[in-house]
Design a protein that fits this description.
mainly alpha, about 85% helix, 6 helices, about 160 residues
């Protein structure tokens, strides 16, 4: 169940993704899809975090969704997947936790540094693993479908 704070975060993710899409010169007809990807990935993150109480798992789920979203919309719009994938994954980047980790490192507060650097690593690994596994599954399925189609053609 989404509360007011969650809705504000989702709207912020949408506009953050829109900003990056504009920065990367995404065509105006594709901006809506690029922006929605960021909002959807943040919804996935919020709901996964509520279910698991684990940042790695939440980032994993949201980044895997972003990878699949980018590939699917790219096929529909006949555009490279990166046009949709990059803006969709931008809200997941662990900027705040990295900032706090470095701030506490400079202040020599190593207890809080450890807490925030651990959080940053969880976010980063979750994003990397989610993207990697999603793309591996996507390309394996594509290869399987391609092999089935070519086998049927050769039988005819």
């Amino acid at each position: 169940m989404l509360n007011v704070n969650d809705i504000i975060q989702i709207i912020s993710a949408l506009f953050g993704s829109l900003g990056f899409a504009l920065l990367f010169n995404v065509r105006s007809g594709l901006l809506t899809f690029a922006s929605l990807g960021g909002a959807f990935s943040w919804i996935i993150f919020l709901e996964a975090e509520k279910l698991t109480h684990n940042y790695f798992t939440a980032c994993f789920a949201a980044s895997a969704f972003s990878a699949f979203y980018g590939e699917i919309i790219a096929r529909i719009k006949k555009t490279p997947a990166s046009v949709f994938f990059i803006p969709a994954v931008v809200p997941l980047i662990p900027g705040a936790s990295l900032y706090y980790a470095m701030s506490y490192a400079v202040r020599s507060d190593f207890a809080l540094f450890g807490k925030y650097i651990s959080l940053t690593i969880q976010y980063s690994l979750g994003i990397a693993c989610g993207i990697s596994i999603a793309w591996a599954i996507w390309y394996m399925c594509q290869k399987l479908i391609s092999d089935i189609i070519s086998k049927k053609r050769s039988e005819q």
